[in-house]
Fold this sequence. Notes:
The complex is a heterodimer of chains A (211) and B (514). By secondary structure, chain A is of the alpha/beta class. Chain A has a six-stranded parallel sheet, with helices on both faces. A four-stranded mixed sheet of chain A has the order 8-5-6-9. Chain A has a two-stranded antiparallel ribbon with strand order 10-11. In chain A, a hairpin with a 4-residue loop joins strand 5 and strand 6. Chain A is globular. Chain B is α/β, with parallel strands linked by helices and 514 residues long. Helix content of chain B is 50%, strand content 10%. Chain B has 23 helices and twelve strands. In chain B, the strands form three sheets. Chain B has a six-stranded parallel sheet with strand order 1-10-7-4-2-3, sandwiched between helices. In chain B, strand 5 and strand 6 form a beta hairpin. Chain B is elongated and about 95 Å long. The chains are: A alpha/beta (211), B alpha/beta (514). At the A-B interface, helix 1, helix 4, strand 9 and strand 10 of A face helix 2, helix 3, helix 4, strand 1 and helix 8 of B.
Amino acid sequence: MTTTARDTVLGRIRDALALAPATGTTAPRDYRRGRTLPDGERLALLTDRLVDYKARVYLCTADDTARVIAEVLREHGARRIGMPDGLDEEWLTAFDGEVQRDSADIPAPSLDALDGVVTASAVSCAETGTIFLDGSPDQGRRALSLVPDLHVCVVGLSSVVVGVPEAVALLVPERPTTLISGPSATSDIELERVEGVHGPRTLAVVIRTDV
Amino acid sequence: MSTFLGMPAAPPRSPYGTGNLRGDRAFPEAAHDELGNGQLRRNLGKATRTIRAKRLAVTGELPDWEQLRDAGSAIKADTMNRLPELLEQLEQKVTERGGTVHWARDGVEANEIVARLVRATGSRDVIKVKSMATQETGLNEHLESLGITPYETDLAELIVQLADDRPSHILVPAIHRNRDEIRQIFLDEIPGVDPDLDNVPAHLAAAARAYLREKFMTTKVAVSGANFGIAETGTLCVVESEGNGRMCLTLPDTLITVMGIEKVLPRYQDLEVFLQLLPRSSTGERMNPYTSMWTGVTPGDGPQDFHLVLLDNGRTAALADTIGREALSCIRCSACLNVCPVYERTGGHAYGSTYPGPIGAVLTPQLAGMDATKDDPNSSLPYASSLCGACFDACPVKIDIPSMLVELRHQHTQQSGTTAEKLAMKAAAAVMRRPKLYTAAQKAAAVGRVAGGRDGTIRHLPAPFDGWSDSRDTAAPPRQSFRSWLASAEGAATMRAAAEEGVRTTADDRTEDQ
């Protein structure tokens, strides 16, 4: 009978734990959890953190979402954009450029030809300025919000929570999840932060303050 | 499930002579050369100063930072205690979600598994996300030997790879290079690069973007590491900044992730702790720009062929050591490197291992051992420290690195058996117990002045004391010992004079007080 690597490694771990027995541990979780803040404070905190990491922030109401998105796209010179299949079509009614509705049969590399993409978002964490995408139909597959150079991400204020524990609690683990905190960046050269490497070099966040 | 059929056996270290867990010379010797490089010291000094300030600012922002550290430390301890069940659970969840799990006893086996998987795709190229595990196993060298080209896509790893250099820092592998050097490397090595490229970091990053864009769009296989693997859900997590990770994890058809077995976490909820601890400790940011989490295969989104390689390579040997086990809690943030007075001056190359700095000095000997019979360079690592304790204070999971260093020093001297140095120490102890012998020995030692040269410093002591002088300069013995001076007429006169001076001073003080 041959021993598999799996059996060997698991056997070694059991041997190790027999040689150096463990002491029972329960992880204390007395760090801050379940925090809440009023709308205005969450908005101010999220905006501050997004701007700090060089994201562009735009505020709008549900009614003028389409107008603000169109303005943002125009401001960045985006003429040809991608949209996830499940995105609210109302949001793009004021945009007069070309819209490519995403589907699985569009090869991901061809997304490079788009000027930008508009997506919704799942959850946001105000304290760290982090937006969570989870691949829901209004956010699309991961490549869609990655390959184009401009990402316009729409955030409803009600989906903004205070801290990381509150955000993680709202995630669905099985969904492919991407955490975005500002545009891509590197500090690899003399630890000087440079925004814009491989991911979208511009992140524009449109916060709907009454949603 | 395996059951014990006898006494538990001590698990083996990473096999000697494989991978990148051992330098070719001892730390003091390597450090001596590195210290002579002024440019390196300036680069390192600037970089570590910058990141120390950033880390302090963002960790200071959180009033519950210490509670987060306690939680992180305890979750990791709990993980090690339950490692077999957690790994089996991770395997089951990843498999249920369409992934394939492989186990590797050591780095050689991991490299072979990855190479076999790459070959099965027919691709001759591989894009890589920065990964400590595959650096440790020497995967790139192995793939190249088989005619497969690995492309490092992290900017710093790319710089290191293009320069045919070695990483010198866990987080910023090219920290030893400044912008002018990087510009020159790009001009020399990137095909078709703009010859007018200047040294502005933003322009250098743009050059890397242009170079790698086509690789991302066309390469069918990616290899990554993993920061965390969640047993409860089978979710893998990669934390990064540039988007090269997202590219590699999303665009290829096949994804192969190599993860050390200690990277498993019990619960998805545990991410709420580590996603706070890691970015603030490593880059000094509230959150790193991008984190990717995926669970097996998602139809229509990302690689449809996913392989997870679970790597031992000495980790179980570390686990078998009650004190050494703590090193497995490391989340590779590199905070300990940035605060270490030794690392700041010598840089990472002197440690010889994929894991440099304070954590490297404890983790490397745990994983790869300190072979007493082979004059192992790793035996010098536990001494690459002043035991100042800054690393312990900075560690987000509270690894007591100084105590581990002391324990490893103890293990090293135990292993070394009877050495000339030990015999000499024994002889010294015997002499010191007998005052007359001690006085005679001190007189004899004065002869050693000739070894001191002009500045009275001895740089190389003869065996068996060369171990001492390898890492320190020794003052030459004085002409006369203190004891013999004290017993001389000159000494007696000086002491009398000092006593009289003391009486006068005390009297003066009293006068002033009144």
